[in-house]
Input
Amino acid sequence: MACLDRLSPQRESWGERMMIDGINLTNVTAWVQDKIPEITPPLDFELIAGGHSNLTFKFTDTRGSAYVLRRPPLGHVLESAHDMGREHRIVSALAGSSVPVAPTYGLCEDTDVNEAPFYLMGFVSGAVLHDQQPVQEMAEAERYSFGLHAIEVLANLHLIDPDDVGLGQLGRKEAYLQRQLKRWTKQWEATKTHEIPEMDESLRLLNEDMPAQVGSAIVHGDYRPGNMIVANGRMAALLDWELCTLGDPLADVGYMLNFWPSVGERERGAEKAPTAVKGFPERKEIQERYERATGRGLERINYYRAFSHWRLGAIMQGVYKRYLVGAMGDQEFDLEDYKEGISVKARSALKLLTD
Output
């Protein structure tokens, strides 16, 4: 999954090194100047999001103008998992639509410039709701208006005809759930280290009682508060398009609802979620607004929520096995707690499928 983890800023003065972590200052500055002639170097780079996802750098020039550079993680990575050209294409295609995205300035696919492809975006000011800290600085009215805008944006994304914005060939439009279950079942079986009966039973039910896909749309794939920039009670920009494809739009709705707990929910980790603070609209209102905006019924939304929980459990199992065998290096990691988290996801999926 593509999660934006806040890191400590990494800064270096101009000329101190020709290569900082992920940025060749000389080459990148020259390339940026060609794309943004008004920029005035030297450029000051700051890593604002990284980890195993794509790296996001904020950089400023001497005038204080701010921009963003996105590139794959350092080291050996699969191009298909960190396709800069694809991500740049999606964000550029949605510019000027009813889905707020940062403006793009260019894509560099010449690896001689910076050892890996990258692209440039404008910097969008606002808060990212990774946790409850930025929420505390929002008035209750802003929390509510942001929640309504978040579901409005998702509905707008799903109402866009992919062919109208040049994204008709982004992926297969049909059989989304079948393809996803096949993919993640393969990972679950390949990384399984212990028995979780709820994972197996949930998978059986997901295959047996799969709803028919009604139409197709642009699916974001990671639609949650942590991938949204918020300003003045509205979404200023939607981030992290790594998992975007074409398919069943209700998968996005189910995923969002799982990341939208209300005050007092008892599910593991729910109390720490950004929306578990007073003021946000609850799931029922979000669902009703989506139905009205799109005309799509959500009678089977519990299936999509269960699928989302199960898929995340399969993803977590892969991470767990990598840590278990030492493939992630010497990092502090509570294996037992993480292992229990997989079971929690499986139980949540099964409960939604059997209630």
Q: What stands out?
A: The domain at 128-354 is CATH 3.90.1200.10 (Aminoglycoside 3'-phosphotransferase; Chain: A, domain 2). Residues 133 and 342 are 26 Å apart (CA to CA). The first strand starts at residue 19 and ends at 20.
